């Protein structure tokens, strides 16, 4: 599979980030806990430069808890402030606020010496599509301030939103990068839903996902679908799952489109289990 996706709005988003960076005190970089490296956009690194930053590992409820700890330690050694978050269940939100206050403490103290009190901290949130930005913003705001959806591309334009802790947040649409030089990275983004399924061959994508899970978590496939994975190819496992789930067309042919959607949906919502596709030891 050759995956490449760079809609026009993403180019505009990059220009928007560059234009508005001077308006904020801190940047929240939101990444997917299942793929912490693959979901870090190198374009954002170039744009943000030395601006204070907090890396937020969202969807921690879908990834392996032990591997989450390994990533926190990994980023800590790099001097990166990192917070583990489950935005839907409101876990880790208070840590974001405390990390924000620590990061801008010196600037706030300088403002106070000049007689400027209670000036809101202005933050920008950036990240790839479908990483949970809108859900996180609504949780931080304590109300529905941003549109949410389980598909990439829900957030379309710039908006300022008041958050808890005297913080004002500039929301931006998700941004990928112009070209995926590493197709392994592109696959991981596709597995987690960062790339629209509409432009993908989902049957091949689901087969690739099974190949990955046979390496990382064959026991979870067996437990979820009541199939054996021993000495079987990914296609054989996919066929067995299809039979178990009744994904059969007329003439007893496998309905690969239907079983592919089941596999992708159940991986993405954590039904198959807590699975991390990357871990620091493999870097």
TrEMBL record:
GO terms for cellular component: cytoplasm. InterPro entries: G_CP_dom (IPR030378), GTP-bd (IPR006073), GTP-bd_ortho_bundle_sf (IPR023179), GTP-bd_ribosome_bgen (IPR019991), GTPase_MTG1 (IPR016478), P-loop_NTPase (IPR027417). Keywords: Cytoplasm, GTP-binding, Nucleotide-binding. It comes from Anaeromonas frigoriresistens. PANTHER family: MITOCHONDRIAL RIBOSOME-ASSOCIATED GTPASE 1. Belongs to the TRAFAC class YlqF/YawG GTPase family. MTG1 subfamily. Residues 13-178 form the CP-type G domain. GO terms for molecular function: GTP binding; GTPase activity. GTP binds at residues 58-61, 130-135, 174. The keyword S-adenosyl-L-methionine does not apply. The lineage of its organism: Bacteria, Bacillati, Bacillota, Tissierellia, Tissierellales. This is Ribosome biogenesis GTPase A.
């Amino acid at each position: 599979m050759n995956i490449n996706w760079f809609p026009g709005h993403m180019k505009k988003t990059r220009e928007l980030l560059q234009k508005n960076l001077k308006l904020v005190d801190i940047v929240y970089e939101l990444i997917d806990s299942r793929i912490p490296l693959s979901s870090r956009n190198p374009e954002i690194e170039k744009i943000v430069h030395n601006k204070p930053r907090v890396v937020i590992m969202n969807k921690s409820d879908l990834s392996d808890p032990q591997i989450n700890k390994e990533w926190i330690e990994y980023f800590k050694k790099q001097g990166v402030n990192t917070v583990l978050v489950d935005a839907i269940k409101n876990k880790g939100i208070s840590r974001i606020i405390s990390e924000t206050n620590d990061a801008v403490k010196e600037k706030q103290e300088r403002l106070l010496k000049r007689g400027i009190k209670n000036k809101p901290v202005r933050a920008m949130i950036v990240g790839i599509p479908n990483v949970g930005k809108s859900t996180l913003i609504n949780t931080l705001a304590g109300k529905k301030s941003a549109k949410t959806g389980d598909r990439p591309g829900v957030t379309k334009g710039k908006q300022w939103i008041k958050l808890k802790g005297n913080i004002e947040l500039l929301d931006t649409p998700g941004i990928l990068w112009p070209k995926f030089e590493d197709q392994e990275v592109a696959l991981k983004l596709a597995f987690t839903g960062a790339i629209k399924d509409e432009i993908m061959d989902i049957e091949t994508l689901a087969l690739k996902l099974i190949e990955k899970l046979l390496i990382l978590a064959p026991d979870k496939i067996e437990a979820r679908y009541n199939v054996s994975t021993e000495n079987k190819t990914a296609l054989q496992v996919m066929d067995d799952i299809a039979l178990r789930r009744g994904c059969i067309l007329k003439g007893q042919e496998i309905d690969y489109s239907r079983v592919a959607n089941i596999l992708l949906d159940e991986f993405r919502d954590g039904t198959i289990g807590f699975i991390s596709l990357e871990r620091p030891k493999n870097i």
